[in-house]
Design a protein that fits this description.
heterodimer, A: 338 residues, 8 helices, B: 270 residues, nine-stranded mixed beta sheet, globular, binds flavin-adenine dinucleotide
């Protein structure tokens, strides 16, 4: 490894409904770390007719350290066809000649990263939760194994094009560049590949719902919630806290809520700042999806429930009594904070 | 229909993971078919029941993976291939290259795999193989239907090529999406796609006589560059231990007040 690196790192800046996702800024932060002092960071924004909002996203990427923002606007990208988006990332890679490409390990990113890596003959390190540099300047990537029961550190071998997908909510987002620098925002010509994927239908989520993977606060309900009617108090608490509602498989299987809310080994993996488990026993498969949360609160009437083994704060009690009281407490607290 | 299922043998998710000398201790551990691959296999068996054809299961792994293949045969798969991982580096790229080469020989109409393997959690190999094979994919399937491409396209724009298509319903972060892709293709299975069957006793007896072919990476005639690792493991550790938690005391109202206070002053969340 030479002391002075002049490497370019490319970020796939994922948007949702025309707005940058937070994980895009986290990927940008990782890219700036990997590029180092002498390197540069490029970003690619891809969409179909995103129009004015792409301008905002591009400006934000530029303000946070992307020297060049490649904007690809093409009808082939109007909906998510993975082959088209992978081709868009490759087009930006051709323009930027990056040594590394960083994406979010999201529903889209986890499909795109392997395809891009294989197409470029590169390597893929997936679901990265921490990035560090060695004294020699090499990058070390930490990622969970066995659903968080172990961790490994991986590196890329020399000369390999690096594709990294980073788990949302784990890496610090890119800060504003000190010099108030404004990057170069360019339209990038793009010849879409023949489209394989025809999107026939999308049933949108109720708008405004916070994505579980990116939520800072999650209030989760289990079988202890007892019915679909048991969820509204949890929703009220989540709303007070500006968080999202999640669930155990127990609650989903019982039909109290949608499977889209399921957290755990076969559901979503989340790492919020605060996870409040209500009426969840804490089966190993549930812990697999949430045990890396920064602060865990458990509310359960069984003092021996295994969830207390991972909880920072435990309340032994009836969730139907505790959750509304907590909602009142937080309303007061947040009001006092302004 | 020629159905090929990629299948990995993994640790049982209930197992405690012990790390010894920088590796996961395997002594006495119980191994299972990766749960997501089981959904993929079940779906392949149902498609064969509906459309005819054969189901081949392919696993890249150590000798013990033959057990998982036998279980798949007992569930109803017709043939199995064990691609020996000896000589393959611990890297998804190299494994995907080997799998892609083995899959070409099987000429699948539909390739099925799990969304990810519960051990590495990467979800990379099957998609890298699809890229190498030039196949379309639909990920995280909750429903899968095989239709005439032209029939499916008739109620939408564009003309069908006359071949078969996979219509896949999948759960994404932007909603419940239905996509159509032409076959041959890769579809990855998400929990909810189906409820996998158990091997029946007659199935277990029959499985003993079903073909299980062993294939070495060397026999595939892969170029050295394709087998070269792109990434490597530096270290493996147990997760950092969590500090013991605290039980709150008092009446429900006192506990709620105490929690709000601690989350603000101690955990510094608000
Ligand atoms: C292959 C496999 C994959 C799985 N994947 C997942 C997964 O992804 N996610 C997942 O969550 N599970 C998963 N499971 C299921 C998991 O093993 C558990 O069955 C499930 O997590 C239990 O859900 P629960 O905690 O809501 O229900 P239970 O275990 O029934 O617990 C309910 C809890 O509520 C408490 N309670 C009841 N009433 C009240 C009240 N009024 N106030 C307070 N507390 C109360 C009880 O004391 C109890 O602890 C999986 C299982 C398998 C085999």
């Amino acid at each position: 490894m030479s002391d002075v690196k002049h490497e370019t790192v490319l970020v796939y800046a994922e948007c949702q409904d025309g707005r940058l996702r937070r994980v895009a800024l986290e990927a940008l932060g990782a890219a700036r770390l990997l590029a180092g002092e002498g390197g540069s960071v490029h970003a690619v924004l891809a969409g179909g007719g995103a129009g004015a909002s792409a301008g905002e996203a591009a400006a934000e990427l530029a303000a946070r350290g992307a020297e060049v923002v490649h904007v690809i606007d093409d009808p082939a990208l109007a909906q998510f066809a993975p082959e088209a988006y992978a081709a868009a990332i490759r087009a930006a890679a051709e323009a930027a000649s990056p040594s590394a490409i960083v994406l979010g390990h999201t529903a889209a990113g986890r499909e795109l990263a392997p395809r891009v890596a294989a197409a470029l003959g590169g390597g893929h390190i997936a679901d990265v939760t921490a990035v560090s540099l060695t004294d020699g300047g090499g990058a070390v990537f930490t990622r969970p194994l066995y659903a968080g029961k172990a961790f490994e550190q991986r590196r890329f071998l020399p000369g390999v094009t690096q594709v990294i997908s980073v788990r949302p909510n784990n890496l610090p987002p890119a800060e504003l560049a000190e010099d108030g620098r404004r990057g170069d925002i360019r339209a990038l010509a793009f010849a879409p590949p023949p489209l394989w994927t025809a999107v026939r239908d999308v049933v949108r989520r109720t708008s405004g719902r916070i994505d579980l993977a990116e939520a800072d606060i999650i209030v989760s309900g289990g079988r202890g919630v007892r019915s679909a009617e048991g969820f509204p108090p949890l929703e009220a608490l989540a709303q007070t806290l500006g968080g999202a509602v999640g669930a155990s498989r127990g609650a989903c299987d019982a039909g109290y809520c949608d499977y889209a809310l399921q957290i755990g080994q076969t559901g979503k993996t989340v790492t919020p700042k605060l996870y409040i488990a209500c009426g969840i026993s804490g089966a190993i498969q549930h812990l697999a999806g949430m045990s890396q949360s920064r602060v865990i609160v458990a509310i359960n009437k069984d003092p021996d429930a295994p969830i207390f083994g991972v909880a920072d704060y435990g309340i032994v009690g009836d969730l139907f009594e505790i959750v509304p009281l907590l909602n009142d407490q937080f309303k007061d607290l947040l009001q006092a904070n302004g | 229909m020629n159905l090929v299922v990629l299948l990995k043998q993994t640790f049982d998710t209930e197992e405690k993971i012990e790390i010894e000398n920088g590796a996961v201790a395997e002594d006495g551990a119980k191994f299972i078919i990766n749960p997501y691959d089981e959904y993929a296999l079940e779906e392949a068996l149902r498609l064969r029941e509906a459309h005819g054809g054969t189901v081949t299961v392919l696993s890249c792994g150590p000798e013990r993976a033959a057990e998982a293949l036998r279980t798949a045969l007992a569930m109803g798969a017709d043939e199995a291939v064990l691609l020996e991982e000896d000589g393959l580096p611990d890297d998804g790229g190299a494994v995907a290259a080997a799998i892609a080469t083995a899959v070409v020989r099987l000429r699948p109409d539909l390739l099925l795999a799990g969304l990810f393997a519960v051990d590495t959690g990467a979800g990379s190999v099957a998609l890298q193989a699809a890229e190498a094979l030039g196949l379309p994919h639909a990920a995280a399937a909750l429903k899968l239907e095989i239709r005439d491409a032209s029939a499916a396209a008739a109620d939408a724009d564009g003309g069908g090529s006359g071949g078969l298509a996979a219509v896949v319903q999948r759960d994404t972060e932007w909603g419940l999406e239905t996509v159509e892709i032409p076959l041959p293709a890769l579809v990855t299975a998400q929990q909810g796609l189906n409820e996998p069957r158990y091997p029946s006793l007659p199935g277990i007896m029959k499985a003993k006589r079903k073909p299980l072919q062993r294939l070495s990476a060397a026999e595939l005639g892969l170029a050295e560059a394709e087998l070269a690792p792109r990434t490597g493991r530096i270290a493996l550790q147990a997760p950092p231990a969590r500090a013991a938690g605290r039980r709150l005391a008092g009446t429900p109202a006192e506990q709620a007040a105490e929690l709000a206070r601690l989350l603000q002053s101690e955990a510094k969340l608000f």
